[in-house]
Design a protein that fits this description.
alpha+beta, Cytochrome Bc1 Complex, Chain A, domain 1, 6-stranded mixed β-sheet, 17 helices
Length: 461
């Protein structure tokens, strides 16, 4: 008996050739007021992302007022000359927009996200915030009080405490890099409305600012909208600031920040090295990823899977600031936490991993997995307008060409195992690493000294 189906089956679809992908390229222009504009059209991205970079680096903060840039950044959303803080927040909500801001060593940055249909409204609020901020006394006092509360929590957080000690140890005390980005309790206490207003007047102007806008502008007269909003912002002409070279002392040594009774030790190990301007950056990123970029990296495989010392350890490279010659420096570091008893064994195994890496190199399999993870996921990583916008803004901060990110992915794919090995070995020389441990000094100091990885100093938390 033959059974004939009454259904008509459509042929199963077959995959077609992969669509070539490259990081989006922006178009660049300059408004009459001097504001630099990077525009990147992303069809289908109805949530537009905007990053406004102000040339107000942390190094420009007045002496003894570390943190004033952070207070100014947070004050931008606390009202304008025509809107109170509550009214400004209500207008953002009506526009379906969000506005965030933060200050870092390279610039003060505001990030706006707004539906494309309300782009003009969102840009007008952003323009008003930077053009005529109210900076009310009561709001500044509240922001200062909030920051002081944050500092208490930061000092109680082992990872933050390790970072503070690491930067203080690695950089000279006169370098702004050596001190917390958002200020210390002593410096923040001295910040008032007058200090914030003075910093604003000295550094916030369109001539030295850049705005990056990414999204779908279909049906939007982009040039007209920009001219009517940020284009109305005025200010005195000025030359862009010039960052000082980054210099760090990477003499091998250990600093233990004592936290009596701590059941864990926070580790931060590193030095400074090449940044994104250096030809070795792509190879360095690839090699560092093999060392500690994922759960299958060498550090995690030994310290987490084999030994059970930790829930995870990561190696990374973080650009710091650009130097006058365009060749800045990056922080190269290994970070994680282990139980107190495993502190010295974990450090010993870390140094063994680094020495073995120098002696034997990476494997082709490690290199291939790293390339697949770094390059293969890039289209997913940059699906949103905000991700593209943030990366373009990073390039502006670091003085990189507009097609830099696209070049990096091509270089990553072309980097061989030998080059990745050479770069990561150069990045993490075992005898040139500064180690900061936040933990119980009485329990770990003696065993750490026996490792011989550098002079050991104990400081109070």
């Amino acid at each position: 008996m033959t059974i004939t189906s009454a259904m008509t089956f459509h042929p199963r679809p077959e995959p077609g050739p992969a669509t070539p992908w490259a990081f989006p390229a922006p178009t660049r222009s300059t408004l009459p007021n001097g504001l630099t504009v990077l525009r990147c059209d992303r069809p289908g991205q109805q949530l537009v992302a905007v990053d406004l970079l102000l040339d107000a680096p942390l190094a420009a903060e007045p002496a003894e007022l570390d943190g004033v840039a952070t207070i100014l950044a947070r004050a931008f959303s606390e009202g304008t000359e025509t809107l109170t803080a509550e009214e400004f927040a209500a207008e953002l909500e009506r526009a379906g927009a969000t506005l965030d801001a933060h200050a870092d060593h390279t610039s003060l940055r505001l990030a706006l996200e707004v539906p494309a249909s309300r782009l003009e409204r969102g840009l007008r609020l952003l323009a008003d915030a930077v053009r005529a901020p109210a900076l009310p006394d009561d709001e500044i006092e509240r922001l200062v009080a909030n920051r002081l509360d944050e500092i208490t929590h930061e000092l109680a957080n082992p990872s933050r405490r390790a970072a503070f000690a690491f930067y203080d140890e690695l950089f000279d005390a006169a370098d702004r890099l050596s001190r917390p980005r958002a200020g210390t309790a002593d410096s923040v206490k001295g910040i008032d409305r007058a200090a914030v207003a003075a910093f604003y007047a000295a550094h916030v102007r369109p001539a030295t600012a850049t705005v990056v806008v990414v999204g779908d502008f279909t049906g939007v007269d982009f040039d007209a909208v920009l001219a009517d909003t940020l284009g109305d912002w005025t200010g005195d002409p000025a030359a862009a600031s010039v960052a000082a070279p980054v210099v760090g002392d990477d003499t091998g040594r250990v600093v233990i920040v004592d936290r009596p009774g701590s059941v864990q030790t926070q580790l931060l190990i590193g030095r400074i090295g090449p940044d994104r301007h250096d030809p070795s950056w792509a190879a360095q990123i690839l090699g560092t990823y093999c060392l500690g970029g994922t759960l299958t990296s060498r550090l995690d495989r030994v310290l987490r899977e084999e030994k059970g010392y930790t829930y995870g350890v990561r190696a990374f490279a973080q650009p710091l600031r650009s130097a006058p010659d365009g060749r800045g420096r990056a922080l190269l570091a290994i970070s994680g936490s282990v139980d107190t008893e495993s502190t010295a064994p974990a450090l010993a195994d870390t140094w063994t991993i680094l020495r073995t890496l120098a002696a034997e190199g990476l494997t082709d399999e490690e290199r291939d997995v790293a390339v697949q993870n770094l390059v293969g996921v890039a289209p997913l990583r940059y699906e949103t307008a905000s991700a593209v916008c943030a990366t373009l803004a990073d390039q502006v901060e670091q003085g990189l060409p507009d097609d830099y990110q696209a070049q990096v992915y091509r270089k990553l794919a072309a980097t061989d195992t030998a080059a990745a090995t050479a770069a990561v070995v150069a990045a993490f020389p075992p005898d040139r690493l500064v180690t900061v441990l936040v933990g119980d000094a009485a329990s770990i100091a003696a065993s750490v000294k026996e490792l011989g990885i550098g002079e050991v100093t104990v400081v109070s938390a």
